[in-house]
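for the writeup, i need someone to sanity check this before i put it in the appendix. the sequnce is what the collaborator sent (i think, or maybe the updated version? ugh). structure was predicted straight from it, no edits. if anything looks off just tell me and ill rerun, i have time this weekend
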Amino acid sequence: MKILVANLGSTSLKYRLFDFAGGQERLLARGGFERVTDYAQTIDACLAELKNGGWIQTESDLSAVGFKTIMAQGVNGCVRLDEQTVKAMEACNSMAPAHNPPYITGIRLFTQRMPRTPLVGLFETAFYQWAPEAAMRYAVPEAWYEAGVRRWGFHGASHKFIAERSAELLGREDVAERTRRLYVDGDNTSVLQPNLRVISCHLGGSSSITGILNGLATGNSLGMSPQSGLPHNNRVGDLDAFAIPFLMRSSGLTLDEAERLMCKESGLKGLSGGYNDIRDIQAQAAQGNKKARLALEVFIHQVRHWIGAFYLELNGADALVFTAGIGENRAELRQAICDNLDQLGVVLDPAVNSATKAQEGVISAPGSRVKVMVIPTNEELVVAREVRRFLEAHPTQKTEDGHLRQQELQSH
């Protein structure tokens, strides 16, 4: 079973091809395209690379194409991406303007290019389906909640990978197995003892913190949209709800302009004076740029804030995990985030931390009650695994015109 995972950005397409033959899982090929202006041509080029590399002979060699979809109105979990689901994604374009439109474009083009190949999406909100309701509600009128105004949580594929892999590394195969089967078994409320408490820090161009109890998410720093939570590279993060109406009334800011500024000119970019790459911000801060230094301090403060929130909710932590571009590579930021947390049982080994970059390992001191770990995330592998499970649970059948159709289209 060969599954292609397509990661779509506003001007990029990155792909990985996995093979699950014989009960094994192998990464066969990976690649990508930047500065994409024509997705149809790029999809053709992607398939051509797979054929030229000998990984597939025709598109029919692919059992499915998987997508790390963001959000859709009334849809969650791992589902077949039919037109009804795509329209549900369109209904959320205003909440995920940087993410949903390119995925929708790509999904429709893949459908046209490969009509006989099932397209399956694992929504980034899926990991939070079983989080406590109190952690996912805003204090708004019931009608607002019914309309979708609630905390959804994102980066689900990444945090699910961390939940599973950290459990394996900590010798808790029972927790790892629960996490692996989460979308198959659904709400698994069976009690596992002792509790395994993990705080997962996905820190990158887009960042979030998740609390994980026995493999299940207890909440996420991201809320109703990917614009919330921690400050992102150029997206705002948490903001008082009255800030926008205040600026619209006081300065004549339009709603469209406010949305553009929050999505493209805020976050670390807004704080630092125009820099949105953490490497540039750190370099500027080292040269004495006060705005860049402030951007780093705000970011660190917010990360610590959310770690503290989940530490309290979980009644401690067995592991604090750093992942994604910043979390895996920026030792100095990991150090700053963990400074002066010894009373909470968090003590780094400075030498090991400094030497750990983009590799799996424990970076805490031997006497640290909380194991501090770096685990490179693998969102594409999570998507591929869930697509495989979806196909096994929902066998395909041929229609009269020879196209493949899923017998069931519901989330599992």
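The CA atoms of residues 4 and 65 lie 5 Å apart. Residues 290-314 form the longest helix (25 residues).
thx in advance!!
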